[in-house]
Amino acid sequence: MSELSEQQSDKQNLDQKSSKHYRYLVFIGRFQPFHAGHKAVIDEALKRSDEVIMLIGSANLPRSLRNPFSVAERAAMIKGAYSEEEAARIHCVGLDDALYNDTRWLQYVQAGVKSVTGDLQTDIGLIGHSKDSSSYYLSLFPNWDSVSVPNYHNLSATPIRDSYLMGATPTPERTPESTRNVLDAFKQTDDYHQLHEEADFIDKYKRQWESAPYPPTFMTADALIVQSGHILLVERRSMPGRGLWALPGGFLNPKETLFDACIRELREETRLKVPEPVLRGSCHSQHTFDDPYRSARGRTITQAFYFQLKNDPKGLPKVKGGDDATKAFWLPLAELDAKMMFEDHYAIITKMVGL
Q: For residues 319 and 243, what is the distance between their CA atoms, to the nearest angstrom?
């Protein structure tokens, strides 16, 4: 086939794809919050398909500055923006994150779609913006067509969310009435006031670095300790994440190695009753975790060290909270709860332990 014939064929396939009508179109996003740009995508999806599946990401996480709204609240924002007839064609499904494990995330997406369609062989397409993070996931499903929609007025949820948590009121130009109704109601809750306090803390925290020539990158070390099917955790005493469960750990001092920082922070926060030579000899593996959005404080990279302590008929070693920890405690692995975990610590645990 000549180059001209190939170009004509490609154009014909593109024209056919642009006019195709789908049984289902899938829109994946966090919608924190749902704004007019998201609505523009759904409007197009409703024209191009019988039904729309909204996979609402970052489900089953604690409220945070990056993820303040529950799946139910975001579903109310989405479906409330449409008539009863249109809303009946929109299916909202929570989608768990799987940081550091794309394969698991793809499984979650497939399961979410299948929960609506019944199978994965039905006429399915993915819809999203062509020049943002959705471009990445559109390429992960070669068996499904992708429908690209231009970014609506370059809207982003991040500035809307950040200003709202600092006390501002979202404008009608950027958010549907259904979103503003949910945000107005949420503003009256204790959860909002806690997030508002944390947003103010983070704002002041970041102002300390305003005069730096470049945004700082922080380095931390975390300890993942497992013995007899239990994991050692702490409850955070301070913001951000006050009251959440976390791995013991903290910032690297100027003149120490990452491993030494890990041991020091572990001792300071848990008072773990294990001799240091035994502890150092129990290190099984280590891994770097560097998701750009893992911390509200700024770009923070952590090195996690996984320790496997030998089973002991005397029981689990004694621990006691100290320094930045309200308490330290052993938790059965079966009772790990993503909704209680600070930042990406749940993802770190599942990655390193293999849960």
A: 18
Number of H helices, E strands in the chain: 12, 12
Averaged over 333-344, what is the pLDDT?
97
d(CA 144, CA 126): 7
Confidence of residue 204 (pLDDT cuts 50, 70, 90): very high
How is residue 328 annotated by DSSP? E
The CATH label, of 3.40.1260.10, 3.40.50.720, 1.10.600.10, 3.90.79.10, for the domain at 217-353 is 3.90.79.10
pTM score above 0.85: yes
pLDDT in tens, 87-128: 999 999 999 999 999 899 999 999 999 999 999 988 999 998
Homologous superfamily in CATH for domain 21-186: HUPs (3.40.50.620)
Q: Work out whether strand 22-29 and strand 325-332 pair parallel, antiparallel, or are unpaired.
A: unpaired
